[in-house]
Amino acid sequence: xxxxATTTTTSLNKFEKFKAQKDGLAVKAEIEKxxxxxxxxxxxxxxxxxxxxxxxxxxxxxxxxxMMRMRIPNGILSCEQMRVLAEVIQRYGxxxxxxxxxRQNIQLRGIRIEDxxxxxxxxxxxxxxxxxxGMDNVRNITGDPVAGLDADELFDTRELxxxxxxxxxxxxxxxxxxxxxxxxxxxAITGGRxxxxxxxxxxxxxxxxxxxxxxxxxxxxxxxxxxxFSSPIFGFNVIVGGFFSAKRCEAAVPLNVWVPPEDVxxxxxxxxxxxxxxxxxxxxxxxxxxxxxxxxxxEKFRAEVEKQFGKSLIRAAARDEIDWEKRDHVGVYKQKQxxxxxxxxxxxxxxxxxxxxxxxxxxAEVYGSGEIRLTVEQNLIIPNIADxxxxxxxxxxxxxxxxxxxxxxxxxxxxxxGAQFCNFALIETKNRALxxxxxxEAEVELTRPVxxxxxxxxxxxxxxxxxxIGLMGTKVRKNGKTLEGVDIYMGGKVGKEAxxxxxxxKGIPCEDLIPVLQELLISHFGARLREPATx
Length: 535
Ligand code: SRM
Ligand code: SF4
Description:
CATH class of the largest domain: Alpha Beta
Organism: Brasilonema sennae CENA114
Radius of gyration: 23 Å
Bound molecules: siroheme, iron/sulfur cluster
Structural class: alpha+beta
Strand content: 15-25%
EC number: 1.7.7.1
InterPro entries: NIR_SIR_4Fe-4S, NiRdtase/SiRdtase_haem-b_fer, Nit/Sulf_reduc_fer-like_dom_sf, NO2/SO3_Rdtase_4Fe4S_dom, NO2/SO3_Rdtase_4Fe4S_sf, NO2/SO3_Rdtase_FeS/sirohaem_BS
Pfam families: NIR_SIR, NIR_SIR_ferr
Largest sheet: 5 strands, antiparallel
Helix content: 25-40%
Protein name: Ferredoxin--nitrite reductase
Number of domains: 4
Low-confidence stretches: 1-9
Number of strands: 25
CATH architecture of the largest domain: 2-Layer Sandwich
């Protein structure tokens, strides 16, 4: 029996109440009806909340122009899929655009409700889904962006990520087993050495680790299975409870569990079932997994997961294999397949328009194998480019816009959506992020990239806590006026020994920010003022 079933309706928050009245996924069957009545006549809860179960987000900032959040497992899509996404936004002219997200994903903008039946048909035809991508669901599952290409990887995450998504969404059709979680849930899996997915900021993450497994464990049928191996075998250490929210941010903690790859999907299911059935639902600010772990203690949480898993869990390996600095994949790199390369394009703050997407699809088809990959830095990779085609790819005009060798600050810039489309935003982010970096680069010279992340409010979608310099939107008072401002975070470390940055300065008005950042770049990151130009 679930905690939800035992909680009285009066103690439920408004989200739990509307979920109890009608499951979010129910709107899937009503899309035709919504399309014919139009967004203004729709039931408000369906429009503002339940549509997110099929990945469609009402935007109070641009009413009538919806956002659609896809699922791109492991961040991999085909040029055919990219073209379909481009066609969807193309019809909306200036209202249509797309954003690459911090979860290796794509969001489309400008969507009209009357077009949804046709859009869903087009998406299904190329095996794309947007189901369960918002609200109390599992978000896009991230994996190594160079899985299967990287000569140094320990495990290719592609198949596993797809299997987890299939389990959670019933092959992309929607799965009522997992459409009423207490809150959102993030899953990441990495088989490389550089923690390319920010494992530590996910509710559940799998990091590579070798384990000598001895003795016996209980099989699914209840019998003891011999599990003795002569040499260490590959699997994953499991970490849990990482999350950012306006109220609290935590890095994930070790669950003291190691799983072989073949048990990953079942473990995801077990953890999700425990979260679904026991996660805290009364206060939405305390509904993420870590709050349950706090309430129960890690030992009890582990024991409940083990019960749900149905066989004994193996203790974590003593160490994991994350021992590299994090790579950003921008530039040209050799693949493990002889004669092939992958090329990482920098997409400024992740923003794309239909013509860009058609062009990227063309490049992937003409020069590569037709595949396109996304990164959590909101950039994009075209893999499988033969040595013989590389030179001509690099002369393509679109690479002037999407560079393989951007300047050092631009290269690592990440920004959430901000005030242009997000009603939580306290500030404008994407354009300001680009302008700020341009102004800084005119003043200072750097010798290494500095990762600046912008986020428009404390929800932290732009992950300021993983940045060298994180900027979180806030409102500030100056000369009797309320202005857009930022709190500054520093100390975020990614890759091996990842750790979260913390707030070091509060309430800098955006109009005063450039000299403050300039000073930080000089004092902490070895930047130097440029010589004044001589006439
Ligand atoms: Fe986020 C809510 C955008 C990654 C924490 N996030 C939102 C909403 C849906 C709010 C809204 O309805 O307007 C934003 C949609 C704005 C829009 O129109 O684009 C939004 N979040 C984003 C994206 C697009 C930022 C980006 O520009 O890349 C990212 C989409 C990821 C995806 O493809 O699914 C995005 N959001 C994140 C991350 C980063 C991550 O997952 O690594 C976080 C912090 C990590 C985490 O969740 O633990 C994040 N978003 C939130 C939160 C705070 C969650 C909480 O527990 O309180 C909210 C607010 C909420 O859910 O109530 C939120
Ligand atoms: Fe919106 Fe805030 Fe998330 Fe930025 S951080 S996308 S402003 S909710």
